Amino acid sequence: MKASLNPTAAAETNARNSILGRLRAPAAPAPLPLPDIKAWFEAHQRHEDSAQRVSRLRAALEAVKTEVHDTTAADWPELLLRLVAAKGLRNLLIGSDTPHGAELKARQPENLELKRYAESIDSWRDVLFDEVDASLTLAKSAIAEIGSLILWPTPAEPRLMSLVPSVHFVLLDVATIHSDFYSAMTAEGWKDNLPTNALLICGPSKTADIQQTLAYGAHGPRELVVLLRHAQPLKPGAAA
Question: What is the CATH number of domain 48-230?
Answer without folding.
Answer: 3.40.50.10420
